[in-house]
Design brief:
Blueprint: H1 10-19, H2 21-31, H3 36-47, E1 54-58, H4 66-73, E2 78-83, H5 86-99, E3 104-108, E4 121-127, H6 136-146, E5 147-158, H7 170-181, H8 189-196, E6 199-205, E7 210-216
Parallel strand pairs: 1-2, 1-4, 2-3, 4-5
Antiparallel strand pairs: 5-7, 6-7
């Protein structure tokens, strides 16, 4: 498994996950402590999408959020997914093609340099992806740039346990997660969002390890 190798690159890690969807499901089940569906639905509700809007998904992976995003914006809206992994974007593109979603597309691109026109998106969404970006400040600034002044950015992500006694698990959980997903635990994504956006609402779950953030302004 290349994801477990110290020499594995980011691309190698996510290329492996793209070829093993069952293993990816198990990873998310463990990360969310069995509450994945609940947290994903709540984060999408926080996005508060309306029909006809344009939404950008950062780190769309295999595209498992695309259907829900499309349903929220309706046939007149637009969904664009970005992911730096060739394997992930390939799987997501195949999902779009099979489902014949004409108003959805996926691009292989880095969150730090999204190929999106400035102030062209109504909303942005990132699920379990922002914490794997090395230059997080650059990524958040770039995402804000593509949002309209009234746009909002919702993040569903993970961090090391914050609450005792959950924190006792960090010495075991954190190294394993970093090796298998390129998790960047040294960077505080909540703080990065607070630096760039005027209004930031944070809700945490599972001992503080799962966070939903809505950022605006």
């Amino acid at each position: 498994m290349s994801a477990g190798s110290k020499s594995a690159s980011r691309e190698d890690v996510y290329e492996w996950w793209s070829r093993h969807p069952g293993a990816l499901d198990v990873l998310y089940t463990v990360a969310f402590l069995g509450r994945e569906r609940e947290f994903r639905e709540e984060s999408l509700e926080r996005l508060d999408l309306d029909t006809g809007e344009r939404v950008l998904e950062i780190g769309c992976g295999t595209g498992n959020s695309l259907r829900a995003l499309r349903q929220s914006v309706g046939p007149d809206g637009t969904v664009v997914g970005l992911d730096p992994s060739r394997g992930m974007t390939r799987v997501a593109h195949d999902r779009i093609r099979r489902s014949q979603w004409e108003n959805a597309s996926v691009l292989q691109a880095d969150a730090r340099h999204p190929p999106i026109r400035g102030q062209s998106m109504d909303a942005a969404y990132a699920a379990m992806s922002l914490s794997a970006v090395a230059n997080l400040t650059k990524a958040v600034q770039s995402i804000k740039r593509v949002l309209r002044p009234s746009g909002r950015f919702v993040v569903l992500d993970a961090r090391p346990f914050q609450d005792f006694p959950w924190t006792l698990l960090n010495p075991v959980v954190t190294p394993v997660a970093k090796r298998t997903t390129n998790w960047v635990t040294e960077i505080d994504f909540v703080a990065a969002l607070r630096r760039e956006f005027e209004r930031v609402k944070v809700t945490s779950y599972n001992g503080g390890s799962i966070v939903i953030v809505r950022a605006e302004g």
